Amino acid sequence: MSVLSKFLLKNSRFFLFLFLQALALTFTFSKNIYHNSILENKIISFKGSIDSKISNFKYYFNLKHENDRLLKENNYYRNLFLGKSKKIKPEYIEILDSTKYKQSYHYTPADIVSNSINRVNNYLIINKGTSQDIKPEMGVITSTGVVGMIVNSTPNFSKVMSILNKNTKVNARLRSNKYYGTLLWDGEDSRIMKLSDIPKYVNINIGDTIETDGKSRIYPEGILIGRISSKTIDDESGNWDISVELFQDMGNIQKVYIVNNIDREEIKSLIDTIQ
C-alpha cells in the first residue's frame, strides 16, 4: 500500500468530517437568504481589501496618465458646476442645480479596486461603503459617462452592477430631441450598448449624443453616455435598433463619483403608494 493510501486511510474520518461540513455550509448559504447575504458581505470586504492593495500598486506606476485624466475631469466638473450652488465637504460635493434641471445631488469620490468587463454580468468593487453613507440604488459615474449602480455595501466597500451587465437598464435619451428609451447591454462588445424603444418616425443620425434622462432617480439628468454608431429598423417592433458607442472606456476606470439623489427617498415613497 502506498504512502498516500495509508495517509488517506488513517485520516479518513477527518476528511469525511470536512466533506460533511462543506456540504452543510453549502445547503445553509444556498437556501438561507440571511446567511447568503452575510457571506456575500464577507466576500466583498475580503476581495475589496485585497484588490485595493493591488489597485494602489498599479496606480503608482500609472501616475502620468492619471494626472492627465484628472486635469480633464476637473475641467469637466468646473463646467458642470457653472451657475449652480455647491457645498464642498471632505466626504462629498453637494450640487444644487437651480438653473437647468433643478436637481439636488451628493457626489462622493471613490476609487475602483476591482473591475470586470469580459463576463455576461459584470461588477465593480469601489472603496466606499456604509461608513460613508453609501447605499444600494445609488448611481456611479465618471466625467465621461455612466458606470453602474450600487447593489450592496459593507462598511468600507461597495459592489457596483456595471452597465456591462444584462440586468442593467438605464433610462436614456437623445440629446438633440429628448426622445427617450431604454439602454441595455447584449453581452457582446464592452464598447457598445443598445438603445431600444425609440419610434422609427423619430429623426436620428449617426454621431448623435445619448445622455441620461433623469427619470430613474439613480442618475442625474444630462449625464453623457455615448454616441450613436449604427442604426437599423427592428422588423419585429417597428422601432429603431440603435447601437451606442460608450464615451467611457469601461476597461480603463480608476476614479468614479457615487451619486446620491437627495430627494430619492421622498420620490420613492410616492411611487410606492401608486404601485
TrEMBL record:
<dbReference type="InterPro" id="IPR042175">
    <property type="entry name" value="Cell/Rod_MreC_2"/>
</dbReference>
<keyword id="KW-0133">Cell shape</keyword>
<dbReference type="InterPro" id="IPR007221">
    <property type="entry name" value="MreC"/>
</dbReference>
<protein>
    <recommendedName>
        <fullName>Cell shape-determining protein MreC</fullName>
    </recommendedName>
</protein>
<dbReference type="InterPro" id="IPR042177">
    <property type="entry name" value="Cell/Rod_1"/>
</dbReference>
<dbReference type="InterPro" id="IPR055342">
    <property type="entry name" value="MreC_beta-barrel_core"/>
</dbReference>
<dbReference type="Pfam" id="PF04085">
    <property type="entry name" value="MreC"/>
</dbReference>
<dbReference type="GO" id="GO:0008360">
    <property type="term" value="P:regulation of cell shape"/>
</dbReference>
<dbReference type="GO" id="GO:0005886">
    <property type="term" value="C:plasma membrane"/>
</dbReference>
<comment type="similarity">
    <text>Belongs to the MreC family.</text>
</comment>
<feature type="domain" description="Rod shape-determining protein MreC beta-barrel core">
    <location>
        <begin position="112"/>
        <end position="259"/>
    </location>
</feature>
